[in-house]
Amino acid sequence: MTTRQWRYHPGKLLASLAVLSMPFAASGPAGAGSFPEHDIMFIVPYAPGGGSDQQARRIQAGMQEALGVTLQIVYKEGGGGAIGFNELYRAKPDGYTIANVVVPNIIVTAEGEDVGYKPEEFAYIGMTEQAVGALMVPKGSKFKSLEDFVAFAKENPGKVTVAGVGATGEANTKNLTDLHGIEISYVPISGGVGDMMPMLAGNHIDAGVTSSSHAVRHAETVDTLVIAGDVASESLPGVPNEPRWNYVTTWGIMAPPGTPDDVIATLDALHASLKEHVDKAQPLPTVQK
Known about the structure:
This protein is α/β, with parallel strands linked by helices. It has 2 domains: 10-131 and 250-281, Bordetella uptake gene, domain 1 (D-Maltodextrin-Binding Protein, domain 2, 3-Layer(aba) Sandwich), CATH 3.40.190; 132-242, Periplasmic binding protein-like II (D-Maltodextrin-Binding Protein, domain 2), CATH 3.40.190. 34% of the residues lie in helices and 22% in strands. It contains 10 helices and 10 strands. The chain has helices at 13-21, 51-67, 82-90, 105-109, 146-155, 166-180, 193-201, 212-217, 261-268, 271-281; strands spanning 40-44, 71-75, 97-103, 123-138, 161-164, 185-188, 207-211, 222-228, 241-242, 248-255. Strands 1, 2, 3, 4, 5, 6, 7, 8, 9 and 10 form a 10-stranded mixed beta sheet that branches. Strand 1, helix 2 (51-67) and strand 2 (71-75) form a beta-alpha-beta unit. Helix 2 crosses helix 10. Residues 1-32 and 279-289 have low confidence and may be disordered.
């Protein structure tokens, strides 16, 4: 049996994503028994208002309509997503507890010691949406462009504060700063982007690195200096690209290890319709090609 490698590297992200997105074979008929018989708990491993919360809210109505039960959203934030991932890992594998999966976050957080879960052991239902990364600053910031940001950081090493979500945000921020040869002070946000946006809005930090979907959603309070990849975004007109910055965030749904195949098949059958529901609800910035 081949051992899966879950080390995060920007150039290998899409390969890891392909593994997580593979459909699971079902040994029994879809929906065998009477699943679901009661409400399903959906764990969001980050703070309210972040990307995972937004994804959950976009798919909630579609899942409830398709399954005929209520999708109860609960927040288990902290540890850059690790607390919520652990909650799901320990949950009863009966299909009544599911959660967001965020790539590469689940891979990066698992690299620490004694994190309590193994990414490859979850039952992955499918991926629903993607967005490229972005560097954002508060409205009215002295940084009007990436060039301004880089020039100031070079003249003032370590003086610029840039926030990101846990170890994943740190890796993506370092990738960008290394490309431009600058040194900043990284501010880790363990609870997620929902905790970061008020810090940006209140000018408590100089900049934030996160998914460009947040730059679109919070365009009234932040300006976007640059987005990752070489594809311009219709959702962020006029914002330049950094083609060398390989940063994509992908959201999906997963269940605890050992969840029965027939239950996974029932949930997986929703995948295509959920993607359509998400796309209609709120188109996201162009995904890097």
